[in-house]
Design brief:
Elements: H1 2-9, E1 22-33, E2 41-52, H2 56-65, E3 70-77, E4 90-91, E5 111-114, H3 136-166, H4 172-177, H5 193-197
Parallel strand pairs: 4-5
Antiparallel strand pairs: 1-2, 2-3, 3-5
Helix pairs in contact: 2-3
């Protein structure tokens, strides 16, 4: 709630987030699941919500599409964590459905939620193709990856490292497990790697 209030406080009357702004909110949460008669299991997560309008191209496209440059990243942490056992999923407020071509997976060890542009059938994100190179929705997704997701991902790892030093729940393997395995990152998600590694 506080993060949403911050966004509202930093928005113009038109509903657009002001230029040259960076907001972030980190939280830890646990998700308990139970399947049938089996014992319940709890997975702890480090979650970062992030809004960034520092890049002028992001800000301009944000205004064109009336989108907030917002992403949320979720890193599994704690004793039961099995990094890279399942690839990170893509969410656009709801999870994208699994697909045969793996387009709903990032190949990252984190889940990524954001204000992405999705295809008309909501089965995948809108990506560059021969007939869509100059499409604003394609450009928006690429800008989000390159500038907002990459920056948020760095912040997530830095926060995990900081929490490792102060809290017993975050383990060193969680910090190292947050780093992407470049060979596993799916094609479109490689767009963010140069910015992430800077």
């Amino acid at each position: 709630q506080k993060f949403l209030q911050q966004i509202k406080d930093h928005s113009e009357s038109s509903g657009q987030v002001k230029d040259d702004l960076r907001l972030e909110k980190m939280l830890q949460c646990g998700v308990t699941t139970k399947a049938g008669l089996s014992a319940s299991t709890t997975q702890n997560w480090l979650v970062l919500n992030y809004v960034d309008t520092k890049n002028s191209d992001v800000t301009s496209m944000s205004k064109t599409l009336c989108q907030i440059p917002w992403v949320g990243l979720a890193l599994p942490v704690g004793q039961k964590t099995k990094h890279c056992s399942s690839p990170g999923r893509i969410f656009c407020f709801l999870p994208l459905p699994p697909s045969d071509d793996g387009d709903s997976n990032t190949g990252l060890p984190i889940h990524v939620n954001g204000s992405f542009s999705v295809a008309d059938n909501r089965r995948n994100l809108t990506w560059p193709a021969q007939d869509r190179e100059k499409d604003d929705k394609v450009i928006w997704n690429c800008l989000l990856l390159k500038h907002v997701v990459a920056s948020a991902y760095v912040r997530l790892i830095l926060q995990a490292e900081s929490l490792f030093r102060t809290e017993s729940e975050i383990k060193l393997k969680d910090v190292y497990g947050a780093w992407p395995d470049i060979d596993k990152v799916q094609c479109h998600w490689r767009e963010m790697l140069p910015s992430f590694l800077e």
